[in-house]
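STRUCTURE REQUEST FORM
Protein name: DUF1015 domain-containing protein
Source organism: Vagococcus allomyrinae
Requested output: structure tokens
Priority: standard
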Amino acid sequence: MVVLRPFKGIRPEASHVAQIATHPYDVLNSQEAAELAQDNPYSYLHIDKAEIDLPSDLSPYDEQVYQKAASNLAAFLEKGWFVQDETPALYLYELTMDGRAQTGIVATTAIDDYAAGHIKKHEYTRHEKEIDRINHIDYTDANTSPIFLTYRQQADVKQLIAEWQQSHQPIYDFDSFYDVKHRVWMITDPQVIAKLVTAFKSIDYLYIADGHHRTESAVKVGLKRRESFPKAPADSAFNYFLSVIFPKEELAIWDYNRVLQVPIPADLVAQLAQSFVVTPLTESAYQPQEVGHFGMYVADKWYDLAIKAELIPTDAVGKLDAALLQQYVFEAIFKIDDIRTDKRIDFVGGIRGIQELERLVDSGDFSLAFSLYPTSMDQLLAVADADQVMPPKSTWFEPKLLSGLFLHDLETPN
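Status: completed
Returned output:
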């Protein structure tokens, strides 16, 4: 079973929601964030990436950045740009992109469920990124960004969500980046809340779709609060973290592609032919249409690389396309063993289009590019259920959850 808990949400005042809600902090660098928020005092980036309001030569991990985030959050509340609900509630967050909708339950989930393995992960985290969000949560005393969770759809949960949406007006309804429509409903009926909480008790596992660093950071801050306040009640807010929970059947993983800046061997095709069936293509912007196939763009030409069947292992991680490309191309040919740290490789989310791969290579910024078939939700859950981790940058979810729509007050005692 997993614990679902309503909370007193901190959220935008309705007339400012479209100006406040913005890209997640981890898809923008400091310069991009500053440019996006330059003429918008309401932008949540003033809280989520508060270095934009400080001298540009200051490290984004300086203590002053987290102090500024806390003071900006306090200012948003004081000015009424943010409001806090008086009673605990659950929320529904619907995102619609290209005619496809996904609806998640916004709630808080238990750090004990994560510790016990009822909230499963599929990625490693990096210490420096954890420290950043630990400090951000610590100074603001709030979960400032939600964790993106998923679960196997339950008929009773689906029905409860649909009934509430059909019988109530959303509190937010606006369009944002990439023409995505965002709608939010607030569930205040104690009986409906109780039904949803009870329904999730029959769900064995939740899975992190996106937000591994935020999860680790939120859990560690909660445990730190628990140690500092050993007599605090078990249902204290800091024992829970902010989550948006979507059924996996409604989610879409996009391709997550790779570009390399490496010398091109004269016999590259011959080396590839040891592990792949290599087919030159006449088309441009090649996107593979099935697992086990990869697009390669080099010297103004696309190739289809089909992995040889006898090389595909049976384990949940090893048979992933990202793992096969890593083993038989990046390691075998280019000696790139750690794609998390090697500066010769970069990653391009599918939202930017296959044409972006061509542009990056044609410009000389990179020497070749690889397009991948998207990882499936079933593959993600299979890896998590096997208590394994996926190769870095295996999944790119769209649409992205906007930041600034919900915050969870940890309510730390004075």
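Reviewer notes: The longest strand covers residues 100-110. The CA atoms of residues 262 and 334 lie 7 Å apart.
Form closed.
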